[in-house]
Amino acid sequence: MATYTVEAFRWSGTGYNALYNTSYTAVLDDNDGSYQGGSDASETVTINGGAAGSTNSQPYAIDVSFTDTLGNPHVETFFFFNTSAAPSGWYFIPAPGSAFTVGATLGSYQSHTTGWTYSSVVCFAEGTLIETDQGPQKVETLEPEARIALAGGGFSSLRLNLLSAVSAVQMQEFENLRPVHISAGALGEDLPKRDLRVSRQHRMQVSSPVAQRMFGETDVLIAAVRLIEMPGIYIDQAKDALNYYHLVFDRHQVVLAEGAPAESFYIGREAIAALNPDARGEVLTLFPHLARKKRIMKPANMIPARIQQKQLIARHVRNEKPLLDAGLAQVALAQNAAL
Question: Where in the numbering of this chain does the Hedgehog/Intein (Hint) domain appear (predicted)?
Fold first, then answer.
């Protein structure tokens, strides 16, 4: 059984269009990587260290509008669960890096899907070439203090290289563990240079005029699983064992994987909870402040809400535009090559 510790907000009795001044620490105990609610008798939940209760109803991922504590409007995805653990009822979990914190005001329902997974771990598959000051190196060979090239230029020292091993049995049973395959050249500008495999929630950098028009930001980070609508990008259905590696820096970074801009491990509450106990201990030893509620890394670039990510990719597909624009990608890579 694995445990997942998250910050959650109690929806029952408050609901939409309401101010949330209280959060809860929820610990979900499960024997698989997916939250399934009432259909999975193995799941239990505790709230603020109380007695364990069962999970009920269906698992929902709901897009909701809200206003953060600074008065800025957002639409993001929240992960809902229902439990008999006291105080019982519905709770929701903000996504990693969410602007929703204590004091935010939840708005109105936008859309939803059924089903969600615990994993928000960001990782590269074994064999991925990462650009360093010594040239491209296989991700599994990188040691702490290695100087890793950044997409915008310069280098940063690696703090940790964490391993998550996925067995063939797990790959067969849990489809959400299978990687996203990004074929060589599928992002635009002949990138990645070789085929690249990353975990589904691993965010790749999109640099395009479309992003600029939608968000006012040229560079945004988009989960790899959202990119599968693009030609040459798909879920790898191979069920062989696979090692994933998580590159941890002092700050969230965008590195070059097979030449393509991709994020490093984003240390948020859910990402830490999804690590195995040894890896979680290493991260919290190096970054003890991240164990405290509300302390998360600042994202390297804007991370749009899930529905906005889908809209961005839909516009790229409709207009047949690459995810890495020629001029924008060349500027970033030229800056790196000059250092």
Answer: 122-268
